[in-house]
Amino acid sequence: MDLVFGSFERAFPWDIAYNFDMLIAYYPSPDADDVLLYMKGHLSFFRHSPEVTRQFLTFPNFRTQHTFLTLPWIETDAEEAEYSHFALLQTNLTFLQFDAMVPTRFHLTAGGGAGGTYSLFNDGQWEFAALGAQTDPAARLLFSDLMDEHARGWAPRATFSDAGHEREVHLRGGESAHFVWFDRKYAVDYLSAFTDPNVFIGARYVMRRAPGGRVVERFEPEPDAKIIVPPLEGPSIDYGHWDHWNRPYLHEMLYNHFQNEKYARECRLCFARCVRACVLMYDVLCSVVGATGAAAAGGGGAVC
To answer: Does residue 301 carry a pLDDT above 60?
Structure first.
């Protein structure tokens, strides 16, 4: 088990989810100009319908038992390679790719009153360890309070706003320059239509709304899931003015897949070492919320 889920109520696009045949969880990539698309083997969603089933069963090796039993050996991650390539480029299925997965090395997960999973972004490159944030009770309580305040103040809002911007993109097969962990001929990507670095970018969505229709990329302004972290006591650090470019901030995500822990160089020997070397915040916040959040919520506890 290498997934921890946050709040499906707050971090899942319920208002538009039923408009698509496939929902693809992705990680935030606001500054990427070459974007991969693939069904995540650990988390993807599909419409429960005969038509979706029928289209997937048109995959050549699924047409008969014989073609399935005699298909070439698949080296790794078939769902992210062959099946994704087929579904995205050779069917009429609609899809939505949306930001969902924790992308940062620093992250928090809490049960009790907050009940969410958060990335801790560090655009200013200040050193969390130097602040003692993973051991200082005041810092730990600050993060716990921020998550509880966010959860209490949250209200449903439309995923797509009037401030969003869309442009058509064109999917490519086998041309991506990205690192891929499968045969490159199955890589599906597109070159972003938003290439002006002066254009403010927030959340990225990629979708095909109509069966066989055009594919569009959409950007929404920075979502209200972002929580600015107030200054913490510690070594002298210049936070600058009050914005996320040089201040740490929390961003609520749907889930954590522990990618940084699994693949970090110092984490290859064993999971125990991984916890010591990489996870500075995770277990600490679990213990904080388990002790304080449960009391505030009248029950519950940490999700670790």
So the answer is: no
